[in-house]
Amino acid sequence: MPFRRCFLCPVIAAMLTASCAKEVHRTEDGGRLRVVCTTGMIADAAANVGGDRVAVTALMGEGVDPHLYKASTGDMQRLSTADLILYNGLHLEGRMADQFERLAKKRPTAAVTDTIDEERLRTLPGTDAHDPHVWFDVSLWMKAVERMRDALIQVDAAGKEAYTKNAAEYLARLDELHTETRDRIAGIPRESRVLITAHDAFGYFGRAYDIEVMGLQGISTESEPSLKDVNVLVDRIVERKVKAVFVESSVAPKNIEALVEGCRARGHEVRIGGQLFSDAMGRAGTPEGTYIGMVRHNVRTIVEALK
Hints:
Number of domains: 2
Strand content: 5-15%
Radius of gyration: 20 Å
Number of strands: 8
Strand order of the largest sheet: 2-1-3-4
Shape: globular
CATH class of the largest domain: Alpha Beta
Order of helices and strands: HEHEHEHEHHEHEHEHEH
């Protein structure tokens, strides 16, 4: 199935407006809005913006790959009774696209990336489609947070003041995180500033924070690297004398381990520098179980391995 730029956006925008013509009655979950999100990153942002006016559920938890995710019967029940559905878009949740199209006819539904300026999105080579991993550029994720704020206001106008205040506070923290991330990555010597991961999820990170990024698999983990792909990347690692490569929490480590073995066979020792959180956050209740904590963990792991 080809990637495409949030093909549901016009439909969803219309449905969201129509669905929100009458404000949602806040009677369930202790008077809180039921907000159902696909990924943990979206759920964390929605909880920060919504505060005590919302009850947030994330369908995809720790270690879950959204590219391959299929909604369960329980998921569909949660989605069908939600006051607001928030998903990433840009084909991240590729296997759920049909469900969102149907749900948008009945429930307020929004892709959090649908108001990001298209010029700021990475276009995939040879296509007119876009990379969905926008959360790796914190400044872009701030645009997604603003979209969530506006979606909440549309379904709960009475909460506008609270949502606006909460969003402003959270956006200020993200702005600090963006600067912190840029400064820490800049501390890695330029010749060592090479990030090699299991799949091509860190392109926005590389562009925003000036680090070269190479992924063994493509944008989606549905693609499998060939032996040729592995050998080409081994050649580049050996040539560049890269010191470390990284596994991802939501992707099996076998392909990165194959890179390490391939380099060893060529006489170059490269180590696994640690585990990065890419398409899913860490365990709930830990720092890495929040968006800000996840970004800081990734930056710390990268800097310690490459500096």
